[in-house]
Queue: 2 jobs
Job 1
Amino acid sequence: MSFSATFGTQTYHFKDLKTLLAKASPRRSADELAGIAAENEKERVAAQWALADVPLKHFLNEELVSAEIDEVSALIATQHSPEAFSLISSFTVGELREWLLLPKVSTPELVRVQEGLTPEMVAGVSKIMRNQDLIAVAQKCSVITRFRNTIGLPGTLSVRLQPNHPTDDAKGIVSSILDGLLLGAGDATIGINPASDHPQNVARLLHLIDELRLRYEIPTQSCVLAHVTTQLELMKIGAPIDLVFQSIAGTQKANESFGIRLSLLDEAYEMALSLKRGTLGQNVMYFETGQGSALSADAHQGIDAQTCEARAYAVAKKYKPLLVNSVVGFIGPEYLYDGKQIIRAGLEDHFCAKLLGLPMGCDVCYTNHAEADQNDMDTLLTLLGVAGCTYIMGVPGADDIMLNYQSTSFHDALYLREVLKLKPAPEFELWLRRMNVIDGQGRVRGDTAAHPLLDYFGNAK
Amino acid sequence: MNWNELKQFTQARIGLERCGHSVSTRSQLEFQWAHACARDAVFETWDAEATEQELGAAGMQTIRLETQVSQRTDYLRRPDLGRKLKEDSEALLQLKQPAVPHRLVFVMTDGLSPAAIRAHGAALATRLSQTLADFIRGPKPLWILAPFGRVALSDAIGEKLKAEMVCMVLGERPGLSSPNSAALYLTYRPKVGNSDALRNCISNIHPPDGLSYAEAVHKAHFLVAEAFRRKYTGVELKDESASFRADLDDLN
């Protein structure tokens, strides 16, 4: 079906829903690189205008990529609940925005329609929402998950402790972990991106975190972000895997470029559940996403970067993950050019995922060839904090020396907790108190030079 | 242990001096300086003409070409254009085709770090030309210099020259602690449309902190010899020149 919008004597035509969504997207270099972006600002707003008038029902009748050739499309169709949808089925995209912003629409109402919304509807409405709309609505969503602690409670902000090292050096990694723990980070997960995906190396890193966790009885979960096939292999031989990680994208072709199919994720999920390592809950998966990933694999099928991203959330949702995060600025300026585009994308991803019921965090980050700096990260970090972002990354000094990009630091997390009066996950907060890392006010103590955690190597064999 | 002892184990910014929730002014400015170095490394201009003269003086044959990108901001936004040669550059390359195709040709581009090529380009070219001399057909190694190139530019050039293999030297995306890092990419049977899975990469070349020239060239020699023997590069060809497994055993 084609769409149009008329202003005076000028009429803009959009040949199908996919084109309309792409042209309505706030400007970003990924869609320009793909050749599907609006040609100018007027065409963009015309597309947004036309998009606002599209009935939500239409999204159920026009596939962006056929379910016959794309298992993500097929999954989206299966996940859709007509019953939940009936509450909003009369709306257009524009009316959905207005409804979401009503004060009477709060957490229970949003949960009620969650299964009725498709990723494309959510992506669509985000395109006609201002940054403040994305923040206001996301703040009303509540998603709580559990493994060894409780993630996503109102008033909390969790941190993934990311202690990467360019050669996976054990002492180097542990030193970064200790730094993070002493700065109150690590409740979302202690998660290492391994430099080498070699199974023996990944197993070594898993044992490394597990021993540390057990010795100090830290109520958190570990993860080594190797390929899911490596983790499957390791689970079979009894390696201590808490969370199974995988990067995912919004089309089957893009997922294939990551070396995954849904059937493979099914297998990993079932096996992770069978290990029963969670003590409070069984949310055993951890996913990463990011706008532009489908395009970079030449697998976007003509769909814009942000809509592709929202479709990836359908994949995540199937496995009830403990954590999901968008690695928003990692991909580089040919996808998100500058701080403005990264900030917008971060807010979109958080909003879309939360509305779809996912425990969304964000790797607030950039590379050195993007037009961005730490000030842009401060802005996005603060906005996401207000929006109720589930967790952020904690990297020593914001400088990831293995992946060569800048994220947020342990100190950045302390800043956000301080200015917005946010706390760590409650079980982890108790541990921090017991270990004398935080004081009576919940603040990290000033002097850590003599903290017993620093004796980890001294006391080790 | 204290923080100074732990800092010996990693270059990560651990144990930073604090003020309240934040870091000391000194830590903050150290970070800003590192970021400034990385930013300037991206936006430096590579003087390809000077490099050409240097390589010529060292006995290499050179051709200087242009990609479809002429300024840095376009380079950052349009990776597709950095993979292609300008029309007149293609024509020039056509003219330079030898009667007998090359076995191995070299390409150099500034990529995302002109600073890396300024620091390491000529030194790597000299050592690669010497070490890989056995794999070259003809008296002099051929070096193609093309600013604003992406990795896949080596396919466009290699295919045009009907080269059996191409070795590209390029400036890597600058890290906060490594603004001048170079990489080598090896592609057997270069062909437009090749995926990166068909290449081998030697990354992080930036002495004294990163990989040394000698180590990089040693790895390159191993991979090039193996690639000619097996007639492929890519994920199936593992770099077994380094004692990676032995390193692993040490850690366990």
Job 2
Amino acid sequence: MSRTFSPAPPVPRGRRAGRAAGRFGQYAALLCYLVFLAFPLLWLLSTSFKSPQELGSIDPTWIPREPSLENYRIAFDAHPLARSALNSLLVAGSAALIAVTIAVPAAYVMVRYRSRVSKAGTVWILVSQMFPLVLIIIPLFLVLKNLQMINSLPGLVLVYVVWNLPFSLWMLQGYVKAVPLSLEEAAAVDGASRLRVLTGVVLPLLTPGLVATLMFSFVTAWNEFFFALVLLKSPERQTMSVILTHFVGAEGVADLGPLAAASFLATLPSLLFFALLQRRLVNGMLAGSVKG
Amino acid sequence: MRALHRRTLRAGTAAALALCLAVLAGCGNGDDAADGTVTLDFLSLAWQAESVTAYQALVDEWNEANPDVQVRYVQGSWDNIHDQLLTSFMGGEAPDIIHNDASDLTDFANGGYLADLTGLLPESLVEDIPQQAWDTTAYEGGTYGVPFLQEPRVLVANTRLLEEAGVRVPTPEDPWTWDEFEEVSADLTRDTDGDGDTDTYGVAWSMKEPVTQSVNLSLSTGGRIFDREDGENVIRFGDDESAVAELISRQVNEDGTAPRSSLGMSGSDTLPGFFADRYAMLPLNFSFRQQVDQQAPDDFEWSVLPMPSGGGEDGLAQGVAPQTLSVAEDAEDQQAAADFIAHLTRAEHAMDLARGDWMLPTSETALADPSLNTAEHGWRTGVELAAHLRPSPVLGVRGYPEWKDKIATPAFQEFYSGAFGLSELRGRLRDDGNRVLDRYQR
Amino acid sequence: MSLTARRAKAVPGNRGTPPPRTPAGRKRALGLDRGAWFLLLPALIPILVLSAGPLLYGVALAFTDEQAGRTESAEFVGLLNFTDLRHDSLFWESFRVGLVWAVCVTTLQFVLALGLALLLNQNLRFRWLARTLALVPWAMPEVVVGIMWRLVYHQDAGILNKTLSQLGLIGENVDWLTNMSLALPAVIVVGIWAGMPQTTVVLLAGLQNVPHELREAAHIDGAGLWRRFTTVTWPALRPVVLAITALNFIWNFNSFGLVYVLTQGGPGSQTRLPMLFAYEEAFKYGQFGYAAAMGLVMVAVIAVLLAVFLRNRLKEDSE
């Protein structure tokens, strides 16, 4: 079984005729996907350089007629963007790392042990995702108040960790299941402890799943809005997603240009994070570890 | 490879810990000083850059003059104010001074979350704001907020198209009647290229929020919408109430002088079409002038007209729900909070705030200020309409939000788009609606 | 975790792993030995404090008349909320809308995301860029997503109508979000768009489990693309597919924020999702008891649907 986890990229060798056409089709399909998925970002970028007058025009263009940085200036002047971005980064980063760190061993136990706790865990995961968030917020608020964690970033991190755990556990279970048991048995026979087996054998094989989960946790926390809104009172602690709503006025009227500018900036960290992590999403670090 | 992986893992864990420590370090400081000074949180909903600056300046001024009562400016958003307040009220962590609008106060006052301001406000302020405005924040004998800014709905019109059509330009002294308005809309509707499709509509009704508009405008034809019978609120929707709604539906579905597609738009959605001559007139809130001014092409001329009159003395009447400042029942020092509100709403300050938000101050002294009585941007039209503003009928009615969301919004939307007629609309609003209200009045 | 790799007396559990070899390892609580508890606790404690407690509280609310306001305290009302709910025809109508929405979004999301994941798994040029760009919807905050799509769908000044009429596909501008029959499909497209990256990433990570040699062997055997997919890729991917589809369904059924920004439930009640009902009941009207009852009913219905969908995975778990 271990041979099946070789690191070779999935490029079928020895293609016959039609290969070029197939390639072309793949690129074309990919292009369609990217246009569909990424065009709002371009639109956001374009909007952020437009004047209010151009935004009121009935004839929208992709390239701003008179591009200006005015919206960025307004956005930075009116609201503490840099500070809130830093808050978001701290909160989302910590929440993602902590959630994944504690989810891996738990998911492992839930997969490898048959017990009532594991079953209860599975039920809890699903129910907690099904139950309307709106009903949990107020009791949660009261619990955090008793823990003296209202209006504090660690409190928010804690909420996000718990908030991200169900997904992390659920997905990681799927990835753990795919790890061949034979590898673990071999290590166990060698006398490795449970923890050793987990960190030495299972974890390296989980890399793509870990990265996917990490991305998910980070982005969820980065974009999360409602908890941040009700839990943080001090202006200097507010996160990016809360600050963005300050560009929206009564009856959904929005200060579109500055909002687009701020939103574009708010989108960048996540994209950067993706760009850095995406490689790990597929290659994994399978080669060395599997031989063990 | 394995060793390498271990290292990255270890580094990752260490980084996580470091991050947590950094977060914790940044958050150790508490809120309350121990030296006897009071710190009050002021949740402000100002959102345009200029008005944020205006509010912050007033807060700074207060803090300078009152070292014992420091006010902290906290930015909120109209988008989610209700949810934020409800959660923090229930959790006992509400801000002390709250900026909101009158329609949101009923439930909070009923829930006991807001302080009754009776006796806490200086006499001069009480007298400077007309009774009509105070009525908007009254609930069961108490006053739960200071109404300080309000805005009528007005017609923003394309000046050139009006001139081309040669129609009479209305003023608050001599407004159009609703009939006249219907004719003017027809005069303004054009098929300029003769292809059979309308190129310019007389008016675009932006009905993303159909209920508030339909209810508030019905006052001009003598409508009341909510009646009190035996101390209970009952919905009525007779001819007086339905006249304006019928006219709008007629314009969309029969006259073809208003586009059906704008019914789902918000006010700002209609602006691009307005600048491009697709719509000649827009019924908008007074503060939308700021957006119109900002977005209009350089050579675009626009004017601000009063909404049509339903005839009679009160023909220009319309309902409003002013912006308000309230004090939380749990506020650390209710009197100090009320004093701060009095500071914000002093005539000269109220005027600054009104100009920052392009709205009208309720303060009569501020309203009389010459700087507001200018023809520029239609300020004068608004000032002249101020006397016609009445408390919106929906204020103080428990259960109104639910009636609005579940019954009235879909009913009005379908009625305006021509899905059914007046009798069906009546039935839904009244019969289904009263069932909803009853649940709140058991 | 490797920092703490001291000699815990942990031993492997079941599923063909060797039986416990030390006496300490046989001490088990609820079917778990000490080592397992040690691994589980970091996740368990925050869950018990911050999730299980509030969750039970929420369930209890459904049997009370809890309302917002500090003047009255809640009383136990038994099943009253549920009998009220049975006659709430508006709620059931929105339930139908919610099912259409959740099924359409989940299915299409999955099909499209699978295609994208397979493409991104190929050795194409610039795939790092493609992988990053494919995640754009995920990176955009929800407030912004709603406002952006309103602009895209805008009838007069929207880029969609402009593009379509330039291509000659439509003669007159379409009112995507306010048309009775177009509104729901239009918001479903946004729903798919917003949820695709997540599904794609999960599937892409899942594809790494596909034994490459098997695929090659199948290739050499002359199996076609489709056969290779059904015999090799799909079986390995299946657990991940089930997991993400189930969660997607739950999430989609429970979501309403995006749709609310786009249409506020209109036109009429065409896009009024059931969770919007519960949300408004709780936060706008302050009827927490009734809202909790709605929540429970939704949990029950989804649970039944999921049990059918996931019966195999659940069976595996209990084996």
